[in-house]
Backbone:
């Protein structure tokens, strides 16, 4: 992966927090995480010379991924129509807010806008956060996760295009982030609406009880809709009198008095640490979990045993554990091979080493601001 | 039947790939929906002894169930009608040793196996990786589970809401000053999409090298990886990251504001300002009110520091305006603004309509027709599409057992009668 940045740097480099809390374009944690294992080249693609270097890189590439506004891609000759003649083997993936076609293709949108317009923002928060803040606005997905959802959809399409590349050569993949959100986040509500004319909003986006129960040191989630799960829960709570009400023996009976059950559970859980509840529940086979904070995930025995966190080293920020090994495979588990590139870190390696420019030519390109 | 286009090219990207699909419910169901819409032949393994719960339940009916204590009369369609699109179905009772042998024979003529049982379930049936790699050396085999196939919590009972909480994701979601937000059903889709990506990447490698592999994907870790930057904050700075609400660490204003109109969930507009230039465009669009000229708001640092007041002022301006009209006005001056979209808004979106995002598909059983949402990509040469409605259970028994495996019809009938193909 060769990341091509503007000489000013990817805007993500200016997003806090920073490693060591030192404001520095090489220390943005958002940039560092999402660019692990890439080489980095800084090129001004607004200049003709910069674009020519980019085209030389494309001649030897399998995939070109870009997220320029569609009109800019066309203006710069980086759109599908311009590239397909010149690079017939190249897979071009355009990742844009609303896609490369259609009446809203030039609309601007960031992660917040896209999630709220295409995702299930209207259902969140539900449950406890809604009950405590009923007058507040809908709330977006945390951090950059909404962008990661679109990115995963793009990655899977690109993998499929690579699969068929030996037969058909290159092609254009037009990914709309809005559509990715409808597909992943909005699917259930959309289906309910299309086939039944109904859907959930914030007041109704919850189970009758158990979605978010405060405990001594945080929150637990209790999934106990089905009868056998409910019986496990009653056992776990030590069979309190209120829970033995015969009406609670059926799913419908419990749903009708969900608030009562929620209050009973809160009363039971309030003095017990979450870890204790979670362990005891799982021994019984009850689907109960904790809302782990990120330090708890980072230090959990489970993630330690699985090696989700991998030792990494960044030349400026130093060593740290990176959360990147999200699967284990018999051949190709994810690895930390290199830290996110410093701005222009691999200009020489790529422009001289791969594109055959001399050191003097590179100096000239640098002086003219192309690199 | 040939699936080639008139020019001889494959019609869809995964045309010719055959997948033995042991997945069920939603993580696996969404993953294999990606495979099937990309053109793979997904052979769903079902059994009348153990039906996929999505065949009989629909999400919204369950919601009515829990909020009103009874099934809604307006029961929504769903479940497999959507998750089974483009898939085939055969019936095998995996409690029968002869069914296990048949499953192996299907694997032998396939490219990939996918499953999302609790760890160990398929191994105990004799269909684990170590066995199936002998049956088919080039096989890609993906297992998806809540916590992954090894590690102390591997046996955890894990529905979407439970593994999302255990991933750290849910604790990061919510208002800065409120409790966490439970990430419910869509977390299944996130994990399923990651499963589809990773498995297709492994297919690319298998096609190039002849070498298959087993992938053990933990849903918890998929969700955790989406918060990588927040984990690095703990890793590099020792800080436990906090919930951020709708705010952005580098941009302001960045929020969801009330707009005019009636709706049980309220009407809202989102605005994200990423530069001082965009801020000036917003101020002009607001008619340059006096408060907006306050020097504290001139540059992003000041806007970030004074965000409470800024958000209150903007909310007062947006409150009596229609969100869709406001979007048009703000987009015209280069400001990122969209309404909060309810299902009826998404269904009526001129953008999605123009891009052909909807497909009319016949509903099995009652002969009705509905619209489903297409996959979110447009491939220029091998377009993906929804071509077939969800299969009836066992509709492909003849195709798979007789045509692919060469069994004769009497044998298949006999095995059906004996509860093996059933």
Residues:
């Amino acid at each position: 992966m060769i990341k091509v940045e503007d000489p000013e740097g990817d805007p993500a480099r200016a997003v806090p927090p920073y490693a060591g809390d030192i404001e520095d374009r090489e220390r943005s944690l958002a940039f560092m995480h999402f660019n692990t294992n890439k080489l980095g080249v800084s090129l001004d693609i607004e200049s003709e010379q910069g674009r020519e270097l980019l085209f030389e890189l494309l001649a030897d590439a399998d995939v070109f991924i870009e997220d320029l506004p569609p009109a800019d891609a066309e203006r710069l000759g980086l759109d599908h129509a311009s590239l397909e003649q010149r690079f017939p083997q190249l897979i071009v993936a355009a990742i844009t807010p609303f896609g490369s076609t259609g009446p809203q293709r030039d609309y601007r949108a960031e992660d917040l806008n896209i999630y709220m317009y295409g995702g299930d923002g209207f259902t969140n928060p539900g449950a406890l956060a809604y009950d405590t803040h009923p007058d507040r606005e809908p709330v977006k997905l945390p951090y950059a996760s909404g962008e990661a959802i679109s990115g995963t959809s793009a990655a899977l399409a690109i993998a499929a295009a690579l699969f068929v590349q030996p037969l058909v050569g290159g092609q254009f993949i037009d990914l709309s982030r809005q559509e990715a959100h409808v597909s992943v986040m909005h699917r259930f509500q959309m289906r309910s609406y299309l086939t039944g004319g109904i859907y959930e909003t914030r007041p109704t986006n919850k189970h009758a009880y158990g979605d978010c129960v405060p405990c001594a040191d945080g929150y637990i989630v209790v999934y106990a809709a089905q009868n056998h799960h409910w019986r496990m829960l009653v056992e776990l709570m030590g069979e309190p009198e209120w829970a033995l009400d015969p009406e609670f023996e059926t799913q419908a009976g419990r749903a009708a008095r969900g608030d009562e059950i929620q209050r009973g559970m809160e009363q039971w859980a309030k003095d017990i640490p979450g870890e204790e509840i979670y362990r005891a529940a799982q021994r019984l086979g009850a689907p109960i979990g904790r809302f782990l904070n990120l330090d708890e995930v980072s230090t959990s025995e489970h993630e330690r045993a699985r090696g989700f966190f991998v030792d990494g080293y960044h030349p400026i920020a130093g060593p740290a554990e990176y959360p990147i090994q999200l699967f284990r495979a018999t051949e190709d588990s994810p690895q930390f091979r290199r830290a996110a590139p410093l701005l222009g870190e691999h200009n020489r390696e790529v422009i001289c080493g791969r594109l055959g420019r001399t050191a003097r030519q590179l100096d000239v390109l640098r002086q003219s601001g192309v690199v | 039947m040939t699936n080639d286009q008139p020019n001889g090219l494959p019609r869809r990207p995964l045309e010719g790939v055959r997948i033995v699909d042991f997945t069920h419910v939603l993580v696996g169901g969404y993953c294999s929906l990606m495979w099937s819409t990309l053109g793979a032949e997904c052979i769903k393994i079902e059994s009348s002894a153990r039906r996929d719960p999505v065949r009989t339940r629909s999400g919204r009916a369950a919601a009515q169930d829990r909020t009103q204590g009874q099934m809604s009369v307006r029961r929504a369609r769903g479940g497999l009608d959507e998750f089974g699109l483009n898939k085939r179905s055969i019936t095998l009772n995996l409690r029968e040793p002869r069914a296990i042998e048949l499953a192996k024979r299907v694997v032998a003529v396939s490219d990939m196996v996918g499953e999302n049982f609790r760890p160990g379930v398929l191994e105990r049936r004799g269909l684990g990786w170590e066995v199936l790699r002998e049956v088919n050396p080039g096989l890609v085999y993906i297992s998806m589970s809540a916590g992954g196939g090894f590690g102390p919590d591997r046996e955890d009972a894990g529905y979407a809401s439970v593994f999302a909480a255990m991933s750290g994701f849910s604790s990061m979601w919510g208002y800065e000053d409120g409790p966490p937000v439970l990430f419910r059903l869509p977390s299944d889709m996130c994990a399923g999409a990651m499963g589809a990506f990773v498995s297709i990447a492994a297919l690319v490698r298998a096609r190039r090298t002849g070498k298959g592999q087993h992938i053990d994907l933990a849903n918890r870790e998929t969700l955790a990886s989406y918060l990588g930057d927040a984990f690095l904050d703990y890793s590099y700075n020792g800080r436990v990251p906090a919930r951020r609400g709708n705010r952005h660490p580098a941009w302001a204003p960045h929020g969801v504001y009330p707009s005019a109109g009636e709706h049980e969930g309220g009407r809202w507009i989102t605005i994200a300002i990423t530069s001082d230039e965009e801020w000036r465009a917003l101020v002009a669009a607001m008619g340059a009110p006096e408060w907006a000229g306050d020097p504290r708001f001139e540059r992003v640092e000041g806007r970030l520091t004074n965000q409470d007041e800024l958000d209150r002022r903007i909310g007062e301006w947006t409150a009596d305006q229609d969100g869709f009209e406001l979007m048009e006005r703000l987009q015209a001056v280069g400001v990122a603004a969209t309404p909060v979209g309810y299902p009826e808004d998404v269904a009526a979106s001129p953008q999605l309509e123009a891009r052909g995002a909807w497909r009319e598909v016949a509903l099995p059983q009652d002969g009705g027709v509905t619209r489903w949402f297409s996959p979110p990509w447009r491939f220029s040469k091998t377009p993906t599409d929804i071509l077939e409605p969800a299969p009836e259970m066992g509709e492909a028994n003849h195709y798979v057992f007789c045509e692919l495996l060469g069994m004769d019809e009497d044998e298949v009938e006999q095995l059906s009668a004996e509860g093996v193909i059933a």
Summary: Residues 59-76 of chain B have pLDDT under 50 and may be disordered. DSSP finds 20 helices and twelve strands in chain B. The radius of gyration of chain B is 26 Å.
